[in-house]
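Marked as duplicate of an earlier ticket. Keeping the data here for the record.
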Amino acid sequence: MSNYTFRGGVHPEENKEFSRESTFRVYEAKGEMIFPLGQHIGKPARPLVKRNEQVLAGQVIAEADGFVSANIVSSCSGKVKDIGPRQTVSGKMAECIVITNDGKFEQLPGIGEPQADYNTLTPQEILGKIKAAGIVGMGGAGFPTHVKLAPRNPEAIKYVIANGAECEPYITCDDQLMRGHAKEIVEGVKIILKLFPNAVGVIGIEENKPEAIEAMQMAAEGDANIHVLTLKTKYPQGGERSLISVVAGAHFPGNKLPADVGCVVDNVATIYAIYRAVCFNEPLMQRGVTISGDAIANPCNLLVRIGTSCKELMEEAGGIKEGVTCNKVLSGGPMMGMAMTSMDVPLQKANNAITFLQEDEVATAEQQLTACIRCGRCGTVCPLGLIPQMMAAAAEKKDYERYDKKLNGLDCIACGSCTFICPARRPLMQLFKQTKAEIMAERRAAAAKAAAEAAAKEEKK
C-alpha cells in the first residue's frame, strides 16, 4: 500500500473552510416528512402503510421489493397523510409516503438499546440486521448495503475499504463524523470484517483532514487488522475505483464489481450506520449533511432526520446571505452534485450536502463554448484512462456502438474531471450523462420488444 494516489485527477478549490470546523448539531424537523420509495439503486420499496395510519419513528413503512432494494423507515411519529407522487431532489416526481410529523418523535420499543455482542452473531444475522435497518450507500450511490456485503465468494475478499476521502469541494460532514465518532466507525469496520474471514480493513482519508486521520489512528491503534491510509488530496480520490487502485493496485472494467478484484468499499457514514444498526438496533433514520457554499449565511454540519424538507435546512443555516444572489443550488458538491430546482423536497438517505453558490458556472460556461482544441488534457485527468475527446465526438454523432464498444464510454463515472480541466469549457460530463441515458433507454426498449415478441410466439403455440 505504498501508492497513495491514483492516475489522473484534478485539483479544484476545496472550499472546505466554510464548514470545516462546524461540529454536528441536531436539527429536528418541524414540518411534514416525505419518504420517497426509491431512495436507493434498484427496485423501489413496497409500501406497508395506508393513509391515516399512525406510525412511530423506526417503523418500516415500506419494505424491500426484490433482491436489489431496501427498506424505508419512518424517522418521525405521526399519521400517514398521503401515498403518491412528490417532487424529489432530482427534480423528478416519485412515489412517496408523506407523514404528518407530530413533533414527538416517539420510537418503536427497543430502538437505541444495546444489543448482544456482535461477535456472537453469525454473518447471516449481521446481514439481516443491516437489511432490516434499510442501510444504503451514504456517499451518494445509494446501493443497498446488505446486497454489497453478500458477494458470492466472501472468502475471496481481501480488503474492506472505509471511504473517508470526502474529495468533493465544500462537503465536510464525513470529516466531522470521523472526528467525533472514530471509535464507532472502527467498530463498524470490525463488524464488516466478521463477514470476510480473509480480509483486512483499510480506512482511506485525504491528507487535508489531519484531525480525522489522528482520530481514526487512535481508534484503530492496537488492531493489526485495521490500517489508516493517508491519501493525497486529489479529486476524485473518493471514487470507488480510485480507492481500489490505491489500496489494492487493481484496475477493472465497468462490467466488473469491486468484489471481483477482492474489495468491498463503504463510505464511513454507511459504516457508522451499520454499527448503530447491529449494536443498538437502530435503523437508518438520520444522517449528517453539510449546508455550505458562498451564498448561504451560516455554513454548518447538521444531524438531520431523513425525510426532512431541504427548505427547513436552508432556513436553519440562516438562509441566503443578505445582499447576495444565489444562482445555483446543488444536492451534493460542485463536481458531481445535481442542480436543484426547488427546496420543497425531502432529504434522502444518500444526500450528504446542499451547496448554495453565487455563480452558476455551468450557465456562464455555456455562453463561452468553443470547439474542441485537441489539447488532450481531458485524457490526462480521467481517473479511468478513458479518452473523453473521442467519446464526445462519438456521442455528438450518436455513434453509440463506437462510444460503448470501442471507447468504453459506459465506464465513465461522471466525476466531471474532464469538464473541469477543459480550456474550451465544453460540457463533457453533461454530454456523457445524456449519452449513457440514451443508450440505456435503447437497451430497455430492445429488451421490452424482445420480451413482447417472445410472449407473442408463446401465445401462438
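See parent ticket for discussion. The chain has two domains: 16-280, 365-444.
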